[in-house]
């Protein structure tokens, strides 16, 4: 199971998604299901079947979000974090081959749709935590070990 941590921005996004699904999308889909059901034979009605399936997906996501939001702990920035890699930090790293990456360490629920976000539970994040600029982080994966040097740390 993933660590139940989230940034304030991440929690805001999850709450917005929940609000949109519950107040906007679900009522629209419910109207479509009701309309399609009024046409008669539901077994051959594609509108009914598709929208009923979508309604189940929405309900499943709403249940997940409500439960997950209640279990998450918001991690806020503290001045004591400056200079070291902690949850919510942006980290610029470089490997021996000169490859550069800029990553942000966040909670599992925040990584989807975000190119440079990595989960606090990932091997990379675990290797980077509590390191300082100039330190090397050895990332152990199933493929092997990789060494990354920390070039910059920021909390934007």
Describe this protein's structure.
This protein is α/β, with parallel strands linked by helices and about 160 residues long. The chain is about 40% helix and about 20% strand. The protein contains three helices and seven strands, in the order βααββββαββ. Strands 5-4-3-7-6 form a five-stranded mixed beta sheet. Strands 1-2 form a two-stranded parallel sheet. α1 packs antiparallel against α2. The longest helix is centred in the first third of the chain and has 30 residues, at about 10-35. The two termini are about 30 Å apart. The mean pLDDT is about 95.
Please specify the SSE layout and strand pairing:
Layout: E1 5-6, H1 8-37, H2 46-71, E2 73-74, E3 90-95, E4 100-106, E5 117-119, H3 123-128, E6 136-140, E7 145-154
Parallel strand pairs: 1-2, 4-5
Antiparallel strand pairs: 3-4, 3-7, 6-7
How would you summarize this macromolecular structure in one to three sentences?
The protein has 156 residues and is an alpha/beta fold.
The multimeric state of the shown protein is single chain
Give the class from helix and strand content and strand pairing.
Answer: alpha/beta
Number of helices: 3
**What gross morphology would you assign?**
elongated
Task: State the low-pLDDT regions, or none.
Answer: none
Major beta sheet summary: 5 strands, mixed
**Which range does the strand content fall in?**
15-25%
As a whole number of angstroms, the C-alpha radius of gyration is: 21 Å
Q: What is the string of helix and strand elements?
A: EHHEEEEHEE
Output mean pLDDT. 95
The total beta strand count reads 7
How is the largest sheet built, in terms of strand order? 5-4-3-7-6
Helix fraction by DSSP (H/I, runs of at least 4)? 25-40%
State the distance separating the first and last CA atoms: 28 Å
């Amino acid at each position: 199971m993933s660590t139940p941590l989230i940034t304030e921005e991440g929690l805001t996004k999850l709450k917005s998604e929940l609000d949109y699904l519950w107040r906007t999308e679900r009522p629209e889909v419910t109207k479509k299901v009701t309309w399609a059901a009024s046409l008669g034979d539901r077994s051959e009605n594609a509108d009914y079947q598709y929208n009923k399936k979508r309604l189940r997906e929405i309900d499943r996501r709403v249940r997940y979000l409500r439960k997950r939001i209640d279990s998450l702990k918001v991690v806020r920035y503290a001045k004591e974090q400056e200079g070291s890699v902690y949850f919510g930090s942006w980290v610029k790293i470089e490997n021996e081959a000169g490859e550069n990456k800029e990553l942000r360490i966040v909670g599992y629920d925040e990584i989807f749709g975000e190119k440079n976000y990595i989960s606090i539970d990932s091997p990379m994040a675990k290797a980077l935590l509590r390191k300082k600029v100039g330190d090397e982080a050895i990332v152990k994966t199933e493929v092997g070990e990789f060494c990354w040097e920390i070039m910059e740390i920021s909390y934007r």
